[in-house]
Amino acid sequence: xxxxxxxxxxxxxxxxxxxxxxxxxxxxxxxxxxxxxxxxxxxxxxxxxxxxxxxxxxxxxxxxxxxxxxxxxxxxxxxxxxxxxxxxxxxxxxxxxxxxxxxxxxxxxxxxxxxxxxxxxxxxxxxxxxxxxxxxxxxxxxxxxxxxxxxxxxxxxxxxxxxxxxxxxxxxxxxxxxxxxxxxxxxxxxxxxxxxxxxxxxxxxxxxxxxxxxxxxxxxxxxxxxxxxxxxxxxxxxxxxxxxxxxxxxxxxxxxxxxxxxxxxxxxxxxxxxxxxxxxxxxxxxxxxxxxxxxxxxxx
Length: 300
Ligand SMILES: [Zn+2]
Hints:
The protein is of the alpha/beta class.
């Protein structure tokens, strides 16, 4: 059973919103690409793991801490007397391992994912002991992009290649099933220990004045240039109220400290020419607080 679901990381959502409204530096572009790719691989892995027998406990996306060291587990499977932390990699193309060093298809040296896996296992082992559990930990590096190939001098038991995914799952499914209260207790403890980090310090610098204003297409993020709200690129049509509410949500995500006011949302939406329409949508869907210049809207 899925005990803890994965949701799209807020950092990725914010990067996507910013990408439509500002020019990224090369580093920001690379980071945006890397987190999109990572999430895509994790989602693919989650779908694959739906084939796991329902008797196992699965926790997705855990950010934990032991002794002030933070570590991430993409997916954790709790089985009988054994736990499997999985690190999912959406690598694509031909990678090479030489003298314990990993190179990407462009020949650029990468962080060794096996070292990361080892670090994570060590910290997780200590955390489990501290919580009073003495399960065997078996960590795996899951490569699930069918376009991935690794030139590695010798076999490594922790690496699962795309062509081995089915067999790996079969092996897991054949394990003994005797999960009882203790396992659910551990799952609850780990889910409670999950750290939620603010993504804001990691974002490229931006402000309200410099971001491009307007309503973007729901489907393809192109700016909608006229009030009919029909996307000229993909033909997507959205009701004005829905589009305004979506824009208010984007505004609140990007500027959590700014107040939702008619003026702010009017500036933000750009292509809506009527302030009245903005006021109507805000009044209908939000609660008005304060008076005159101090008035602003909050979620109901
Ligand atoms: Zn579109």
